[in-house]
């Protein structure tokens, strides 16, 4: 950049280098997504298309930024955890936060058509973002536990609320009054006794959210392994998760992972295995070119 008499304005820029040896969390959160979901007629209480789109956008972020060791998503938010020793963008907080947020948002728009098919995007989605530092392993575990506990509380409420509205015939205001002051046990009882629904049998992705980890898996019909980003729906509050996936806190390469069932679409698209959505993604790329 050529020097000029105007270059002094750079001195007004603030230095925002993050503290060393701290876990870096970037959390993106949908802005006004209540209105956005209504406008696009999201299914209640959970829309798998929306959750799959959030997960696909998060995978794109992790593919781009290799120092993200784990990500956790639920509803319209995603948290990305960068390794403690990362030097990405010289640990400049504004750059880290804005790059991750902008890539996530643009990916959400880019992949929209894959998951919502004939539903036209009627308004631009946008996400706010924040960056927080956690100095200890206990801190980062507690942060992720907090987000998963939040997922459980919100989903139990929403599942019960929409059961009362859709199946029980109550208005939104009547359902809110019915649930006011209730505990988790009360909501479970309403679901079971009035709607024959055992909350514990609801899909784990709804109850526990989605965890994204880097793992090494064996490619189908091959002896070769490939590193991919794997979606999990597990309890990360207890010790079992952290013992099984010890590479997260030790910041080591992802361990070998074996699927009992068929590969998730999120993994197939990384392995370039043709699925309907993978085919649509390639068409999107061609159109973008």
Automatic annotation (TrEMBL):
The organism's place on the tree of life at top rank: Eukaryota
What Enzyme Commission number(s) does the record list for this chain?
A: 2.7.7.79
Cofactor, free-text remark: Binds 2 magnesium ions per subunit.
Which key words tag this protein in UniProt?
GTP-binding, Magnesium, Metal-binding, Nucleotide-binding, Nucleotidyltransferase, Transferase, tRNA processing
Q: Which reaction does it catalyse?
A: a 5'-end ribonucleotide-tRNA(His) + GTP + ATP + H2O = a 5'-end phospho-guanosine-ribonucleotide-tRNA(His) + AMP + 2 diphosphate + H(+)
Cofactor(s) needed for function: Mg(2+)
Cross-referenced InterPro entries, in alphabetical order? Thg1_C_dom, tRNAHis_GuaTrfase_cat, tRNAHis_GuaTrfase_Thg1, tRNAHis_GuaTrfase_Thg1_sf
Spell out the molecular function terms from Gene Ontology: GTP binding; magnesium ion binding; tRNA guanylyltransferase activity
| GO BP term, pick one | tRNA modification
Subunit info?
Answer: Homotetramer. Interacts with MFN1 and MFN2; functions as a guanyl-nucleotide exchange factor/GEF for MFN2 and also probably MFN1.
Q: What does this protein do?
A: Adds a GMP to the 5'-end of tRNA(His) after transcription and RNase P cleavage. This step is essential for proper recognition of the tRNA and for the fidelity of protein synthesis. Also functions as a guanyl-nucleotide exchange factor/GEF for the MFN1 and MFN2 mitofusins thereby regulating mitochondrial fusion. By regulating both mitochondrial dynamics and bioenergetic function, it contributes to cell survival following oxidative stress.
Family statement drawn from the similarity comment of this UniProt entry:
Belongs to the tRNA(His) guanylyltransferase family.
Q: What is this protein called?
A: tRNA(His) guanylyltransferase
């Amino acid at each position: 950049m050529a020097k000029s008499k105007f270059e002094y304005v750079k001195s007004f820029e603030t230095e925002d280098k993050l503290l060393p040896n701290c876990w870096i969390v970037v959390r993106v959160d949908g802005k006004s997504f209540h209105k956005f979901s209504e406008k696009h007629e999201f299914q209640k209480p959970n829309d798998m298309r929306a959750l799959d789109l959030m997960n696909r956008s998060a995978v794109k972020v992790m593919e781009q930024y290799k120092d993200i060791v784990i990500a956790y998503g639920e509803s319209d938010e995603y948290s990305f955890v960068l390794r403690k020793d990362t030097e990405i963008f010289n640990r400049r907080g504004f750059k880290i936060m804005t790059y991750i947020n902008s890539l996530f948002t643009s990916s959400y728009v880019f992949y929209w058509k894959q998951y919502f098919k004939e539903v036209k995007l009627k308004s631009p989605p946008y996400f706010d973002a924040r960056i927080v530092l956690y100095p200890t392993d206990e801190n980062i575990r507690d942060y992720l536990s907090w987000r998963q506990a939040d997922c459980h509380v919100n989903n139990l409420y929403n599942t019960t609320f929409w059961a009362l509205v859709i199946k029980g015939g109550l208005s939104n205001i009547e359902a809110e009054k019915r649930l006011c002051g209730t505990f988790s046990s009360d909501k479970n009882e309403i679901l079971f006794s009035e709607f024959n629904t055992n909350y514990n049998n609801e899909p784990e992705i709804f109850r526990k959210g989605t965890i994204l980890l880097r793992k090494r898996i064996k490619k189908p019909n091959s002896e070769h392994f490939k590193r991919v980003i794997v979606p999990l729906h597990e309890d990360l509050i207890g010790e079992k998760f952290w013992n099984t996936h010890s590479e997260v806190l030790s910041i080591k390469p992802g361990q070998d992972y074996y699927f009992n069932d068929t590969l998730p679409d999120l993994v197939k698209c990384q392995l370039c295995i043709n699925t309907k959505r993978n085919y649509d993604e390639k068409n999107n790329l061609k159109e973008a070119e």
